[in-house]
Amino acid sequence: xxxxxxxxxxxxxxxxxxxxxxxxxxxxxxxxxxxxxxxxxxxxxxxxxxxxxxxxxxxxxxxxxxxxxxxxxxxxxxxxxxxxxxxxxxxxxxxxxxxxxxxxxxxxxxxxxxxxxxxxxxxxxxxxxxxxxxxxxxxxxxxxxxxxxxxxxxxxxxxxxxxxxxxxxxxxxxxxxxxxxxxxxxxxxxxxxxxxxxxxxxxxxxxxxxxxxxxxxxxxxxxxxxxxxxxxxxxxxxxxxxxxxxxxxxxxxxxxxxxxxxxxxxxxxxxxxxxxxxxxxxxxxxxx
Length: 288
Known about the structure:
Oligomer: single chain
CATH superfamily of the domain at 64-254: MetI-like
Pfam family, one: BPD_transp_1
Subcellular location: Cell membrane
Family: Belongs to the binding-protein-dependent transport system permease family. CysTW subfamily.
Largest sheet: none
Distance between the termini: 54 Å
Structural class: mainly alpha
Number of helices: 14
Radius of gyration: 25 Å
CATH architecture of the domain at 64-254: Orthogonal Bundle
Order of helices and strands: HHHHHHHHHHHHHH
Protein name: Spermidine/putrescine transport system permease protein
CATH class of the domain at 64-254: Mainly Alpha
Membrane topology: Multi-pass membrane protein
CATH topology of the domain at 64-254: MetI-like fold
C-alpha cells in the first residue's frame, strides 16, 4: 500500500466550518483596509519621503519648542481629563450599581442621552456657559464669590472642563459594568473580618474595580489625545493640541510630511499606552 492509498481521516464539522468562518468578515476588513489602513500608511510614508527622503520632519518636530509645547498640552489635558473623569465617574457608577431601580434607570438614561447629543451642540453650549458673561461667571459674581469674571474659555481650563463632560460617560459605563459584577457578600465578609469602611474600599473595592478603572482610563486618555473639535473651540490657537496641529499642517500649511510625522508620533504613543494597559490589565489573564 502506497502513501496515497492511506485513507484520510474525515474532517470534523468545526474544521470544515473554519475555512468558511472568516469569509463573512472579509468585506468589512476590506473596507477598513481601503478607507483606513491605506490612507494612514500613505500619510506615514509621506513623513519620510517629503520634501526629501529622510527623517527631517521628525527632526523638525522634536527640535521645535512650539511643537513640543503642543505635545505637552496634549498630554497635560489628556492626563487631567482622565484623572477628573475617574474621580467623578467612580461615585456615579457606584450609585448606578446600588441605587433603587427607578433612580438607577433615570440616571443611566441621562448618561446615555448625553452621549447621543450632538458633539458640536454640547461644545457650543459650554462656550456659552464658560464665557466672561456666561451663566457660570454671572452666578459666581452674584453670589459674591468672585469680583471679576474668571478666564474659563480660550485656555486649557475650558478645554479640560468641556472634554471632561464629554468623556465622563466613557468612564462611567465600564466602571458600572465592573461594579455590578462584584458580589455584595464580599463586602459583608470584609466587615465581619473587622475591616473598616475605608479598609473595605481601599483593600477590596479598588482592587476588584481596577480592571474597570483601567479600561475607562485607557479609553478616555486615548480619545483625549486625538480629540479635535472641543479643544479647537474652547482652547483657541494659543492652546493647541496635537490633533489641531495635524489638521492645521494639512489644511492650511499643506505640509503633509510634517503632518505625517506628528500623526506617527501620536499613533506610536497611543499604541504604547495600549500595550502597557494590556500588559497589566489584559484580557483576563492571570497575574502572579
